[in-house]
Give the backbone structure.
Amino acid sequence: MTNIDSGFNLENTYITLPEFFYSKIKTQAISDPMITILNEKLAKDLGLEVNYLKSKDGIDILAGNKIPENSTAIAQAYSGHQFGHFTMLGDGRALLIGEHIRPNGERFDIQLKGSGKTPYSRGGDGRAALGPMLREYIISEAMYHLGIPTARSLAVVKTEDKIYRGKQINAAVLTRVAKSHIRVGTFEYAAKYGNSEDTKTLADYTIKRHYPNLMLKENPYIELLRQVTNTQAKLIAKWQLVGFIHGVMNTDNMSIAGETIDYGPCAYIDVYNPETKFSSIDHQGRYAFGNQPKIGLWNLSRFAETILPLLDSNTDKAIKIAKDVLGDFGNHYESNYYSGMARKLGLFRYKSSYKDLIDTLLDSMTKHKVDYTNFFLGLTYSENFELEFYKTKDFKDWEREYTLRLKTQEQTDEQSKELMKKSNPLLIPRNYLVEEALESAVENNDISKLNELLQGLKNPYEISMVDKKFMKIPQARSIPYKTYCGT
Ligand code: AMP
Ligand code: MG
């Protein structure tokens, strides 16, 4: 043992649930783990000791070679609808090493991904490859700095141990930090395979952990459904506003705490088109960009089904309650989305009449294949971003309407521009930037590009902080960009 204090302050409240919900796991060592990247700022914010994490003991914990003292490592059981089909899943290559209590009292799951086999691994090897783990690190950290609720990434450690993914490649372990990993799929698991009490036990645990103010409500479960519905509506609206495609919105990848979790084949759109999908396995476009709100509601409906008996003992009444609550998803989503869009356009108080203005713009952007991010940058910082689209009749017609709206609000043009600057990111992890950074890290063992990109992504709304070279629109590709599940 080193004598540096680790800063870990771990509890394991999840194991107070019946054993049906998890399996205790022993470590499965990887050889000679080395830190590829460590999020020192996040470590400090969590009250963790950076020097400890860099020490042999610290690296052993980040590699899953050792469990912190007095903690119990578990893999969580869950099911899920994958592409619409129900399946038994569970953490097949993840290990929850505990819930860390930050100095301010907040609780976070510390979970290792790629840490070895578990009883839920099915045919998988329990491992993860370096590239996809670094990819998750980049994209989740970008999401955080864009102001979008997300699981975060604390570290990636790699090993010379090889895994097979079409060829031999280096394995790695990612440490993720999230409010929890309770998923819609966790509830589906309880409802499908548990006894009559298990769903209630899970719901009570979830309410206590994430929505404690609901404990005093007459029926906390109805309020739980409402809260989860609202937080998901808000979350998905935020995804749409920055052009993020999750890529695999299976119910097991939807967090009850309302964070973006389980980054797999996710990516950001460049050209605006609601039909955009990047995932190599999403043949039908189920999880295409424009479908995300609809799928969010579909997933929430699966959640509601699991807690129906808790909503009312009379099934008909319970269904009516669930329908009423879920019926609000659309309004919540739309008000979050359109008011966010209005802010991107420098319009302050959202009015329903803006909806047409926004929809017309998005239709034109689709028709003219306009880069989503840079379009808004052009409006915000006109002198720096020239797009062919601005010369079209479609744009000019739209701009006349838009200017009228700007003029009828009481705020000045300067105030409007300030609002736009805060609402339009200069840098998102564009696919080509991510690929370049990963290629040098994985193929050439050089993480300078990765660090440079991560540095830019830390201040995506600050023009003085983002290198202009990152704002380039990528060359049109002859082969569509493809992403793969975190392999
Ligand atoms: P995901 O697509 O990341 O949500 O994963 C779906 C399920 O497959 C989860 O239960 C994962 O734990 C499991 N899984 C993915 N890759 C592996 C692997 N290499 N070994 C074992 N389980 C895996
Ligand atoms: Mg998953």
About this structure: The radius of gyration is 23 Å. DSSP finds 17 helices and 13 strands in the chain. Residues 220-242 form the longest helix (23 residues).
